[in-house]
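Quick one before lunch.
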Amino acid sequence: MAAPPDDDVLWARGLHYTYDGSPALQGVTLGVREREIVSIAGSRGSGKTTLLGCLSGRLLPAGGEVWFDGVPVHTLGLGARERLRRDRFGWIGSEPELVPGLTAWENAALPLLLRGAGHRAARTAAHEWLDRLDIGDCADRRPAHLLQSQRQRVAISRALAHSPAVLFADEPTAPLHQADRLQALRTLTAAARSHGITVVLTSHDPTAASAVVGGPADRFDDSPAATLVDRTITLIDGRRTPPVATAPDPEGSAACSLSA
Ligand SMILES: Nc1ncnc2c1ncn2[C@@H]1O[C@H](COP(=O)(O)OP(=O)(O)OP(=O)(O)O)[C@@H](O)[C@H]1O
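Model of the adenosine-5'-triphosphate complex:
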């Protein structure tokens, strides 16, 4: 078992995963550098959620390796993987899964409290994150009294409040209206950058999938919103698409051919 490259905080090689014999991942290899924000793009059923599950230790791959910070996640037992997820990872699903009996701030504070933070510190941090996500005035409401978009913002606050090393976000803006998606994604990525949090997010939403800052990507994108993620990895049928070798030239001839 070869150790991963030093500059990747998260690294996977040859990942395979099957559901009842149907392949969902077929040999995916990727590395994510510390503080990098990577988007996993692909159409429905291409394996994005399964890949995120394997990278975050929620799912055990049928084959291949996953390493986080020098730890071989694929060899850890259930308890060790749960501790790793609780202490070092954050998770945002496409549906906000909040505890119905807790208020918004109590939900956001939950990971901090589970890790042993004091009540006052957890409450302060939770309120700060709710304010950043523009739902500070909902802090004392329970999930049933929040809109779906507000619930998702609480879920985003909860995932960031304990400053995880890696945030995994599976279609994090899916429950939001189109108009709110880019803003929520901006808030999420800006917060992650300012706190040095590595992010791996999935999306089939072109708003997220196309918002590439620059650097090596599986596909080129010149969207005006290209300010949010560092790199996009694209899956088709559980496999990575080969990287696109050339970017459009500055004179715009390639851009014409793209739009043709
Ligand atoms: N729990 C499951 N049981 C059986 N098959 C599953 C299960 N979850 C996913 N699959 C199948 O595995 C493949 C990959 O699914 P996955 O959810 O990882 O893709 P995805 O790209 O995240 O799709 P989506 O955008 O719809 O969430 C699909 O063919 C899907 O039908």
